[in-house]
Amino acid sequence: MLRSMFSAISGLRAHQTKMDVTGNNIANVNTVGFKGSQTVFQDTLSQVIRAGGAPAADRGGTNPAQVGLGVKVAAITTNWTQGATQSTGRSTDFMIEGDGFFVTRGNGNEQLFTRAGSLDFDASGKLVTPDGAVLQGWMADADGVVNPNGPIGDLSVPYGQIVAPKASGGGVIAGNLPSNTPVTVPPTKLQTGITMFDAQGVAQKVFYNLSPSPAPAPANTWTVEVAHENGDVLQTFANLRFDTSGKLDTAASGLPVTGLLPAFNPNVDAEVAGVVTAGRYPSWDNPVQIDISGLTQYGDTNTLGAPEQDGYAVGSLQSFQLGADGTIMGVYSNELRQPIGRLALASFNNPGGLEKAGNSSFRVGVNSGVAQVGTAGVGGRGALMSGALEMSNVDLAEEFTGLIVAQRGFQANSRVITSSDEILQDLVNLKR
Question: Which residues are in the Flagellar hook protein FlgE/F/G-like D1 domain (predicted)?
Fold first, then answer.
């Protein structure tokens, strides 16, 4: 039989494989997170018809005469370039910008990896892929602290989860006190306020009254009064000093360098309007310290404000947001924002060595290297985006061109078989 016939048969097989790969790429042109593949051909062994000769003193060298024996598929490689971004607006759709894979727990607790971030909740609140694999990461503790150095586990978003209230333990007063505020009797008060919370989460409105201190107090001295909404004075500090440049002078005020007012306890005995009250706020007996380092005394503009305090009422989880580092930030009904978990991403030394496990997932292969699991944005792992999906990176124009090349290659090899058959027919006809 002719060598050309067997070579052409190998060509048919190789181009059929290329057609299969191209067809699979086109079929997955709209598959989330799909990575296209390319077929790499390689020639097979060659038969040496005449060996080559080395040059000698009386003659030159000769090259070997070799006839190839066909083609084979050397590899089917994966194109790991980034796919296009499709905005979905769904909070459970995640996309990796850069390298890395989502880590999931499949059937039988097998660890799988995927680029497809189309997730949803199951009946137990876990984040799962369309085929039921559970997204992996680290859950936060009751205080919202995530330990990314611990073992990964199932991620869930517990909607309706109740967060216990926290009593206010600190607040902030900031802004500018006009330097031309008149010193009067009774004193001219600049007021701002904020809502604080006791240990049961009950709102307690607190007002800050600041007024210039009259003589014999030194110039640029102010009095700070912290008062409850019911009129109780919780604290009075009459030695708030500013230097001639309008900056807070903590040393002259007798304050710590950080600019904190001495802590007050809302529940201690105090004399209000000549009456000694005891146990005024029994559910709020922790000390509260006010940061005044942001106060200044410039010009005639009053920008006094109380921008923050650290307490909150009881709340329930309403929604969540995903950060670029994979942190799932819970948004509670009491306006608290607290981490509830963090997504884990995996990277590989050779992602081309991963084995496809179906359902847009991969498993560790013998040549992929071990999974290096960690947080997004470090260790070569990409950043995360919520409300978007990574689409297939298949280029239809390129695939259709490959389709034509595969078809013509298949046709050309079939013509070789036809021609070889005609030659054999001519040999048979010699007997006639």
Answer: 95-154
Q: Which domain holds residue 115?
A: 86-156+324-390
The answer as to whether 341 is a domain residue is: yes
Reported confidence tier of residue 222, pLDDT bands at 50, 70, 90: very high
Is residue 1's pLDDT more than 90? no
* Main-chain dihedrals φ then ψ at residue 416, nearest 5 degrees: -65, -40
Please report where in the chains the tokens 């006839």 appear, as a residue.
67
321-353 burial, b if ≥16 CB within 10 A, otherwise e? ebbebbbbbbebebebebbbbbbbbbbbeebee
371 is a domain residue:
yes
Alpha helix stretches (DSSP H) within 97-209 = none
Helix (H) or strand (E) holding 236: strand 233-241
Would you state the pLDDT for residue 230?
Answer: 87
Q: Are residue 400 and residue 386 in the same domain, yes or no?
A: no
Instruction: Give the predicted TM-score (pTM) of the model.
Output: 0.76
Judge if 334 and 401 occupy the same domain.
Answer: no
pLDDT in tens, 154-168: 999 888 788 889 999
- CA distance linking residue 104 with residue 117, whole number of Å: 11
